[in-house]
Amino acid sequence: MRSMTGYARATATVPAAAGGQDVREVCVEMRSVNNRYLDLSVRLPRSLTGLEERVRRALTAAGIARGKLDVTVTMTVRDASGEEGGATPLEPDMVFARRLADAAQRLSEGLGVPNDLTVSRLMAMPGVLVPVRPEAGESEEDAWGVLEPVLADAVAQFLDARAREGERLGADMLGKIARIRTLAAELAAASEEDVRTLRVRFEERLRSLIGQADVQPDEARIITECAVFADRISVDEELVRLSSHLDTLEGLLHTDDAVGRKIDFMLQETNREVNTVGSKCSNAGMARLVAEIKNELEKIREQVQNIE
Questions:
Q1: Domain residue spans in the chain?
Q2: Each residue of 19-45: pLDDT tens digit?
Q3: DSSP secondary structure letters along the chain
């Protein structure tokens, strides 16, 4: 069982594609929070945008099923002295630059002001000069060969962080389930005593009404009616189903699969049984026990929102 919350960061230093003494520092950062489904966002350098689909496939293949996951890949080129920059080959994005120039011209014509856009100003705008794309200096396969091991390292760290958090959440929920079992045992004992008391009262009341009607009592019918009444107010069946649901929940908490939705469903079924028990409560002591069980179930439900 894993949490949906996690963070990981992996880096590696490899030779620059342009050769020489320059090196590239590749960094993969992953962070996730709770989400009903898998909401995956991948941010890559412009030179690696062709690898986005491979990154997505690698993440889903690793078993990441739920959560809002942000993956950021950065690539920094450093020269022999360790300074950023180096001899990274750049090229103009002519399509983007042409769009900027056309927009400047339309503004000039539309507003009736001079168009003072120069090449120097255009080059200073973000996105006009970009690193050489992989196909221009490095094949996509080579680029993936550089990124894949760093991504795999980050994914391993990320899954480990999620597993550790999931283990802590699981231990907390198992403790709450144990508390519910204790309360259910107290509820069973209280219910047994309550059924006996109410059955005696019911029989006394029934005999009193028969006596007032001045009719001959049918002992077999009285016994039958008392048994039906006792069965109606008993919560034995609900408590048996409650115990079964708790067994299922404990089993799910010990698995390594994505079980958040299954646990959430079982909690709904468990809460339904507890509500049925509550509707049959006839004294304050039992009502208090039911309220405590529902409180523990609500705490578990809140924790499950963090489970993948």
A1: 90-131, 166-304
A2: 555 677 889 999 999 888 889 999 998
A3: --BS-EEEEEEEEEE-TT-TT-EEEEEEEEEEE--SSEEEEEE--GGGGGGHHHHHHHHHHTT--SEEEEEEEEEEEE-TTS-B-TT--EEE-HHHHHHHHHHHHHHHHHHT------HHHHHHSTTSEEEPPHHHHS-HHHHHHHHHHHHHHHHHHHHHHHHHHHHHHHHHHHHHHHHHHHHHHHHHHHHHHHHHHHHHHHHHHHHHHHHHTT----HHHHHHHHHHHHHHH--HHHHHHHHHHHHHHHHHHT-SS--HHHHHHHHHHHHHHHHHHHHH--SHHHHHHHHHHHHHHHHHHHHHTTB-
